[in-house]
């Protein structure tokens, strides 16, 4: 076995590889750029070597620099992780030339699968199902109709040079194929100056399902089941699971066998993934093969019990796979949620900055369930603009899908991340979405279910009531503590009452609390009783409660007269008041949020570098108004519509917070 | 007897109705609560003991004898906030517009006198149209009596003003002399002369809100210490503030049970100060991570944001915090920040509240604006306030402590008890670049030499160790252990006692 391995990557995957290597007794070498000086993977590795400036194209993907680091460290093997150099055959070649083991497939396999057209051809030859289509030139509409008929409707008619939906038509009949061909051709000619058209099968209700394969250099190969990755946003996977709730055993086997056949056709070794698109009738078609470890590999590890990184290293060392296909048993259900530093309320814009708080849920590995968090960041660390915004992969495993989802919901609620925008609320929303819960998602799920983007979650009544009970109980504890202050008048202490009015999300609950030594019973106005217990004390930012026997985890913030509660994707203000306070609060006018459509708000914390307009200027839509510098990036803010500048509140040199008003318009 | 009780109850009911249901409805329609409703929210339930419910004015001019409502436009008395006694007056806008008469003022004076004698804070809720013009000089005399009592009570018991309606003309000077002023957004304003007079005299056209609304006074004038969304929130937050304050200048600040480990280690603080010395970071993160339960009551949050002031608790005990904020103007001192912090430091010292100072200060803001505005004397206020303060003082330098500003920010030289520095500290006369350009003026034309001199200067002075060698820094501490170190420091100072030489009073550079 190798003594020393270098991980040519960063972030969570570098940490992930280090863990397996360490378990195997192999010492580890990290590489890092300027921005990653204090990164977690650098802290975890036995050695760390600096390889250049922050941008990846000056550090992590510069083969010469990585090779220098390998030589300097004396590592015998290199694990490339995913991304960066992981599918770069030149890198594999450079390693081979120096006799360093590449923990990945041979360069021939990388090359063969690296090209879309070649890989599809090889796949067809290996008997893998591919999307039926006609790649040649199509002369006229008649030929288009004939080809469409052979492929079978529905078909997609596409411009060769196409993109962004332009020059694309879907046809369900001969007539539509005829029309579609002509209009696609015209549109392609005018949009791209290239009117070549091709036709392929249109896959309805498409799902992204991929097969994990693992091959050694002795001709053995197995498939380790599938992963369902249909929940994607702009081709970026967000939620994955294994197995797929859609596949049956027959389809699974057919896909698995084809995947292994493809891998063996190109002399594949190591772990690899064959991606398929699967239609509503369980027809599956080859998309591409990823010749590396996938981001979402943990779900496969959780249902097979196989450490993929360990196996990759063993294969790279020339060992035989220790199991055969028959030994592979899929056990239970695993779900992965990817935590991105992207603000879901701002169109999933990447968010950078300091992680002032980062507390993942406790990892658990029990027979009943598993919670696993693969991460590359830590509290106090910095999320920089240079790399992928994914900061953690939270996985849960349980015997059934429903239990795994429920464990995930609680784990997401327990995950504390502050200082940057992140998609935790969105993930929670997906975990509660009926389509996901039913397992009926397609790759269009996010687009179809969140067409206007994500603007939070409205909690359903039973959940609101549980939160109301919890908040009433917590508020009472906090109020009692306040009465324990020194300097009070003896015998005239404040008595904290039992009646509390809880208002949240437009709902109002009257509650009465009876506390005893191991919790409280909250009685609602309608007689409904809820038992609440927890070890929450004032100031705790995470409340782990048991309400009516089931867990409730709340992120608790302070607001005047109550709490800011975040749970299940919702972010709400909860006011807890005595009946008198509630009565008087009802007299307070509802304040209308100022109309910000006539204001330019600062979209991020930053420094005003330049103001381009003056009071009284007429501005046109799209005109530059000012420049804000944030994290060394200059962002030009432009007018969203025509208007006149009526007021400017900031000048060059001012530093502003998010949503500060920079200027106003008439 | 029964009849007499009925009479009493009827009178009480009449008094409680203030100016009548119609005026109460009008008050509500403006988004404001009545004087008594406000007291309900301010004090513990059923703890209010009222004085002078049946007081009426004695004016007989202009037909005033025809209307002599009970209470005369102000509700006064005492009650408790979380069991601790406070005195309160609450002006009743529904009764003669809350206008101040001789008797109205006398009611306020009565509870102020009692507050000073009994050592309990005074909370005034202001909602008044101003002087009762019908009474003429009697009304002015009433204001004068209140002002004099504000002065006598200053530094003896905490005084808090809550502006919940108009407060104009001479009336503003009572709140002005109290320790804290809170306002309610959109429904309160304060000014010496109103928009009409302003227009007549200066031709400026300005609304009451622009001239003296909550935003003006929390952001521009610094007259107010905070503004809240509505009456309910404002009064809840006043209760929260009272929980931090001692009852009087002889009492120790309150202690409250706390649920936080005094030795809590915050590893994330090790990376708070960025590698680039010119990058900002948020000092509030440090305050929140030092404080018990991340609970911070900020004073003047929206004014002079280059310095942060407010209250936290350590081991359940109140501590005043003053901290430079590198996010704004690099955390420098200027006229506004010096004034803001000086007043806060003096409040803490007057009421025996220990002071924690967190320092990252590149110096005083240069410029004609500052010099013409008198930064010399305003800066001296903070220096004076720190030097004068005899309460426990603990200072932590996180990064820059340059020049005169280093001395000002609770340095060892101003009798600070504990002066800690993070390893990232740079305690020097100025930044390396500026210093080099002065010391090595002859080499200015040679960038290479200057770079070397700068590096040498940095190596020598851009650290806490020179100051530590002199004993100006007691200990260089790990950022992660700041809470523990600071908590222990204050714990050791609980019996600190310093006598000042006798003086009639000091002469702070006002």
Automatic annotation (TrEMBL), chain A:
Pfam families, A to Z: Biotin_carb_C (PF02785), Biotin_carb_N (PF00289), Biotin_lipoyl (PF00364), CPSase_L_D2 (PF02786), PCC_BT (PF18140)
PROSITE patterns to which the protein is assigned, alphabetical: ATP_GRASP (PS50975), BC (PS50979), BIOTIN (PS00188), BIOTINYL_LIPOYL (PS50968), CPSASE_1 (PS00866), CPSASE_2 (PS00867)
GO biological process terms, semicolon-separated: lipid catabolic process
GO molecular function: ATP binding; metal ion binding; propionyl-CoA carboxylase activity
InterPro entries: ATP-grasp, BC-like_N, Biotin_BS, Biotin_carboxylase_complex, Biotin_carboxylation_dom, Biotin_COase_C, Biotin_lipoyl, CPAse_ATP-bd
Cited PANTHER family: CARBOXYLASE:PYRUVATE/ACETYL-COA/PROPIONYL-COA CARBOXYLASE (PTHR18866), METHYLCROTONOYL-COA CARBOXYLASE SUBUNIT ALPHA, MITOCHONDRIAL-RELATED (PTHR18866:SF33)
The protein, known as: propionyl-CoA carboxylase
Native source organism of the sequence: Sedimentitalea arenosa
Automatic annotation (TrEMBL), chain B:
Keywords linked to the UniProt accession: Ligase
Pfam families: Carboxyl_trans
Superkingdom assignment: Bacteria
Domain CoA carboxyltransferase C-terminal: 264-504
Keyword Protein biosynthesis listed: no
PROSITE patterns per the UniProt record, alphabetical: COA_CT_CTER (PS50989), COA_CT_NTER (PS50980)
Gene Ontology biological process terms from the UniProt entry: carbon fixation
Domain CoA carboxyltransferase N-terminal: 1-257
Keyword Ligase: yes
SUPFAM superfamilies according to UniProt: ClpP/crotonase
One MF term in the entry's GO annotations: acetyl-CoA carboxylase activity
GO cellular-component term (any): acetyl-CoA carboxylase complex
Protein family: Belongs to the AccD/PCCB family.
Official protein name in the record: Propionyl-CoA carboxylase beta chain
